[in-house]
Structure prediction request, 263 residues.
Amino acid sequence: MPAFEGAIFDVDGVLVDSPHEKAWRESLRELMEGEWRDIRPQTTWSPDAFTYELYQAIVSGKPRESGAQAVLAHFGVPDVPARTVVYAARKQSMIEQLIDEGRFTAFPDGLRFAIDVKEVGLRLAAASSSKNARRLLQHIHLDELALEQQISSPVVRPGRTLLDLFDVDVSGRTFPRGKPHPDMFLAAAAELTVAPERAVVLEDAPAGVQAGKAGGMAVVAIARVADDVDVLREAGADLVVPSLDHVDRAGLRDGRLVAVPAV
Prediction:
């Protein structure tokens, strides 16, 4: 394979342990226990029914309204089209509050990987369906986090945020089709001036893996929970790892996706 020239990163679950899942779960709970309490008997929703597994399977990686629609349909909520708008707006309000309160963290392995591949000459793009991805990346001070993780690199300079590490950011844009369609990733590759076959996508959600493969790209999937391994492989990932520390950086230079033991 030719050497990889670009790396395209999803944000939530890859670079940032963001509060998206909490916002989706808690905003629906607020609605079901508040203004929608009269419809609860018609649904399968309960406070414990919105699990991590459900989030990964039907929400993660999708645009906001698509995610809201999928959740409401899953729980059998009546009048899905109208309630989708309400649920998506409630979730957005909650995620903005959680971000402003700093209730999220960056994944150290994601930070290390992004810095390392930038150092070896790959161009980087952020490509999240979330319209909040840019805000998340801007809230993470790259120099402070690198110091905390004892990372020394010429690409880390005072005053830079994690967003500044990226050459291109297509996160949150409106595309004709969201993930699992490849439109967003193809736009990211085009703006990086990298051919799709020379781009590697970093994802943690099945919909994102499918989008990368549909765009003709190599895909590394991060299974931060062991139960995610099989579903990410079934989605078509070329390599599934428990953390990005397990991806051989040198292999990327000659087009190889190789798992290595974490140091």
Remarks:
- Residues 20-100 form a domain with the DNA polymerase; domain 1 fold (CATH 1.10.150).
- The longest helix spans residues 80-100.
- The beta strands are 6-9, 16-17, 105-106, 123-126, 168-169, 199-203, 218-222, 239-241.
